Amino acid sequence: MRDGREEEIRNIVGELLEDYKDDRTINQIELFDQPDTEVIVDILDKMLKIVFPGFFREKTYRFYNLNSRLTVLLEDVMFNLNKQIAIALRQLPENQNANEDEMAEKAEKITLEFFKKIPLIREYTETDVQAAFDGDPAAFNRNEIILSYPGLYTITINRIAHELFKLSVPLIPRIMTEHAHSQTGIDIHPGATIGKYFFMDHGTGIVVGETTIIGDNVKVYQGVTIGALSTRGGQKLKGVKRHPTIEDNVTIYSGASVLGGETVIGRNSVIGSNAFITSSIAPETRVSIKNQELNYKTGKNKKEASGIEITDLEQDESWFYII
Amino acid sequence: MRDGREEEIRNIVGELLEDYKDDRTINQIELFDQPDTEVIVDILDKMLKIVFPGFFREKTYRFYNLNSRLTVLLEDVMFNLNKQIAIALRQLPENQNANEDEMAEKAEKITLEFFKKIPLIREYTETDVQAAFDGDPAAFNRNEIILSYPGLYTITINRIAHELFKLSVPLIPRIMTEHAHSQTGIDIHPGATIGKYFFMDHGTGIVVGETTIIGDNVKVYQGVTIGALSTRGGQKLKGVKRHPTIEDNVTIYSGASVLGGETVIGRNSVIGSNAFITSSIAPETRVSIKNQELNYKTGKNKKEASGIEITDLEQDESWFYII
Amino acid sequence: MRDGREEEIRNIVGELLEDYKDDRTINQIELFDQPDTEVIVDILDKMLKIVFPGFFREKTYRFYNLNSRLTVLLEDVMFNLNKQIAIALRQLPENQNANEDEMAEKAEKITLEFFKKIPLIREYTETDVQAAFDGDPAAFNRNEIILSYPGLYTITINRIAHELFKLSVPLIPRIMTEHAHSQTGIDIHPGATIGKYFFMDHGTGIVVGETTIIGDNVKVYQGVTIGALSTRGGQKLKGVKRHPTIEDNVTIYSGASVLGGETVIGRNSVIGSNAFITSSIAPETRVSIKNQELNYKTGKNKKEASGIEITDLEQDESWFYII
């Protein structure tokens, strides 16, 4: 900006500072009262190294002894997670007036409880790796799955976030699962309960709602929604079971929707692609949509080598194309 | 690489340098003539701190006084945005021969115009936070929405990019919205006009086209396309209204497509999941697809506890599963 | 953490170290035996600069002479890719007992072979830019496409990864394409063979399987699956052609699925939105789904200006909404 503009800039800044004075939700200038997303993402990265030691190399700590390396890593995560939990707990209405010591005490208890769950998380994750290998002919080996599969990445973060959710930590679990969502396009609420041997292939577009319960050996493909039937009640529905129960050994193929808090998909069932299910399905059932009726036409649909289409197609109402 | 390979490497480098000499689109070695994506993403991160002061902590500038902190932040963004705009303006055919002073003058005017819009952007964004809270029973509180909801993140970036789009800045608005797209799977063109209280839940797979007009209080769920009906004209359609108008208080549920530049969804209407709409809908209408016809079969579809399926299912043409 | 907790922390760490002693897939403490995802992503970023010189500015190397700049960049990528390939090759069962020299020799050969393919990759990518410009009326110019289009980003990374895949490099190609998948929501297996002038618009949710073959001038929109029909055989299907062949000049509109290893979409055909195709389509054919049957109701579906819906809608079984 050149010099002549200085006053104009000062005016704009002044107006904005004025604008911040309104008491609005998007203000909130108590700077150090919010959990820090960057710190939480860093905690997650380190938690993945704890769950999969060796796969995710720790460059910061150059110990050749695994014990020392892990001890340092664990203490780092513990320290930072504890701090973030203490900040997040303030978001609970009952903690607004608690004193510092009480809050620190609560945060520590939760942090330690959470760390005791890591062997359990690892036990479940081991089964998820196996399920991906058994389920995907394109899997080269287990290492490829751990190093690159977005489904495994997401379910692992979900298992971590779910333990914090069960310990009633506000905000942090959702920040964790939304981080996974942004990396993979898979949106599983940290409240969802998910059994062993869970496999999501491709994954993009999968949505699993807060009160979903999923058994063991369940496979879910891209674009599947396990969601709520809207009763359009918004905040009035908080805490109500709004999402389905999926029993053991169920497979849900791509694009299917399974909806509603009273919907139960019975064990050993298979839901076909694009099916839209809003009531319970008995065990051992395979559900698919009836064959689509298709129109076929022989067209004069040509393109030049340059990629430019010749638009000699007659316009025809029954032909719907999306750009 | 070992020493013996040196000549081979020199040859490969030589061939590549030769290959760069062709006059092709993907070359373009005028190094400093392109907007810089990294700088634009940094500007966006800082703009989010300006829109939500306090939520996004500014670590670089350690001022305890909000005024100084914001002034420094605003001047930083202004300086860098101004520079990027000056570079981007060169992409307009009419500016190819403009002199440096003219361009600097134009860029400054646009930058200052844009900054005057920030209070307006903040006013809209405040309503988006409210809409997310009212619309989602899983929302713990407004802080959770601001800190973690991908829909809010995307609409905020879109509101910023849309103001630059209206000021006819090339490239930068699209770089901004594609950054949001990569973070959230929500693809809203910066040209789309969107009213207050806009809420997108889950979001992954939402597409909103360039010439879309959306009213107030509109809710859109995952996988919704608000798109064009292809008349397959490519660049010949530039500037034509190709995308729908969505009036106030409309809800569009997951997977629905609303298509075509003459399609108007009248106020207070609801479009059900997976509906495919290519013509206008009267106000106060609820549209849903007729119940799918489903096939049900009792199968012998079992899995062992290990997750390996026993493949004793008869092959059956009517069963379509996607891997 | 306060002092009193120290013993508790020591216990937790002790239990975790105990837990790592099990011989499980998710352990694998041979720290330096895995390819490094971070290094591979860095290689990809630099490869994009090699494919599009000038567009992706190289800040690290400040040379004003293009030759020196590119030489340094190429040698950097060569050195690091070579190292990662040497590590990855160990994952092939036949290389488990190879000596260091043999492995280094193999890795070097592959690296040099790969670099010889860069002009070919650039030739294909040039056509992809052209196809995006011709196909999208919202494209401002070719620079916008190169700087911001997720479809172009993904196909470019795929063309790079596919060359490494053809050279039988394990793990690295998939790490590359999964990185693109995480950035764009487009999941193309590095094994897929894709012709010139390939254009993906919007892109989120596109899945293209390992054994797919795609001709020249093909356009694919958001949410399209080019996938397998499950015969549920898991690892037993490795290497079998499980995914379709798409011939030249085919367009596949949003949400369509084309499935099965014997399915061939003949040249110049068009597949309409949401079509579900599991058998071959003759050349010159346009396929679309029959018009959906829709229910229309005039509702009393109102919202207050605040965004809160008045829930006076009668509950109605035939109305399915997903939250």
Automatic annotation (TrEMBL), chains A, B, C:
Cited InterPro entries: LbH_SAT (IPR045304), Ser_AcTrfase_N_sf (IPR042122), Serine_acetyltransferase (IPR053376), Trimer_LpxA-like_sf (IPR011004)
Keyword Protein biosynthesis included in the entry's annotation: no
Pathway connected to this protein: Amino-acid biosynthesis; L-cysteine biosynthesis; L-cysteine from L-serine: step 1/2
Keywords: Acyltransferase, Amino-acid biosynthesis, Transferase
UniProt-recorded name of the protein: Serine acetyltransferase
Organism whose genome encodes this protein: Eubacterium segne
